[in-house]
Design brief:
This protein is an alpha+beta fold. The chain contains 3 helices and 4 strands. Strands 2-1-3-4 form a 4-stranded antiparallel β-sheet, with helices on one face. A hairpin with a 5-residue loop joins strand 1 and strand 2. Helix 1 runs parallel beside helix 3 and helix 2 runs antiparallel to helix 3. It is globular. About 15% of the residues are buried.
């Protein structure tokens, strides 16, 4: 069994700027199915990619509705075999679908 080193944190962000973590996921599949599947469509969210047991800054932070830079920044993790290109495309497609932002 492979131990996951990277974790996805999903936060729902209120108009006031306050946020609440709604889930932490070890795979893009679970992130899409459980993390994004439970967010009311249209709610603002922030996705954070982070290492477990680390006091260093997150590896990436992306916010709705555009999630600027997500596709480009995830290419590094495809090169290191953390994620597949197909998983990253699935995530990008789902975020664009949720927020009706053209791909």
């Amino acid at each position: 069994m492979m131990f996951r080193r990277l974790y996805w944190v999903v936060e729902e962000v209120e108009k006031s700027g306050n946020s609440q973590v709604s889930g932490v996921y070890t795979s893009i599949f679970d992130l899409i199915k459980h993390g994004l599947g439970c967010v009311d469509e249209g709610n603002e969210i922030r996705l954070t990619l982070t290492k477990l047991d680390s006091n260093k800054p997150p590896l990436g932070v992306w916010t709705s509705p555009r999630f600027e830079g997500l596709e480009t920044e995830l290419e590094e993790y495809v090169r290191t075999d953390e994620f597949t290109a197909e998983q990253c495309k699935s995530l990008s497609d789902e975020l664009h679908r949720m927020y009706q932002v053209p791909v």
